[in-house]
Amino acid sequence: MNEGGHVTTSGQALENCGKPAEPPIDLAHLDRQTMGDAALQAEVLGLLDDQLRTVLSTIRDASPEERAALAHGLKGAARGVGAFALAEGADAIEKAPDLDGNLRRLDELAQAVLMFIARRCNGTHNG
Q1: pLDDT classification of 108: cutoffs 50, 70, 90
Q2: Is residue 96 part of a domain?
Q3: Which single residue of 16, 50, 65, 78 could bond 86 by disulfide (Cβ 3.0 to 4.6 Å)?
Q4: CATH number at residue 64
Q5: Where is the HPt domain positioned along the sequence (predicted)?
Q6: Which segments within the chain are labelled E, that is strand?
Q7: What is the spatial distance between Cα 67 and Cα 83, in angstroms, rounded to a whole number?
């Protein structure tokens, strides 16, 4: 078992051994999108932070149509900054808004992105 209590095969353990975890945001993509402007990066990450918090606070109680619309907007924003796993999670909800597993997965991905933004921006965003 790994630290999260999940069973891994020896192949999985060896494959991940010594590799740092991939950040939830592709920093090279973000850098290209913002032309290397650190202030712009902080601004767009702050906007994503705000959008994520809004989506997370409303998506569970939303109708399937509203969930799909929220997920669609989040998918575009996530792709724009390089949060590709988050975009995939949002895409899954857009395609199947009634599956609770999709909502749980989106929440996990969103929490990772929110923590990354908080660390990266050192609390400078007050969303």
Answers
A1: very high
A2: yes
A3: 78
A4: 1.20.120.160
A5: 52-112
A6: none
A7: 19
Q: Is the pLDDT confidence value at 127 over 50? A: no
Residue type, 117: I
Tokens 């969103």 sit on residue? 110
Domain range holding 83?
A: 23-121
Answer whether residue 18 is part of any domain. no
Q: What is the value of pTM for the model shown?
A: 0.80
- Asked whether residue 59 is domain-assigned, the answer is yes
Q: What's the CA gap between 13 and 127, in Å, rounded?
A: 37
For the chain, the residue count is: 127
The CA distance from 92 to 3, in Å, is 27
Rounded Cα distance between 90 and 50, Å, is 16
3 state DSSP class of 49: helix
When divided into structural domains, the chain yields a total of: 1
Q: Write down the pLDDT at residue 12.
A: 44
Asked, for residue 6, whether it belongs to a domain, the answer is: no
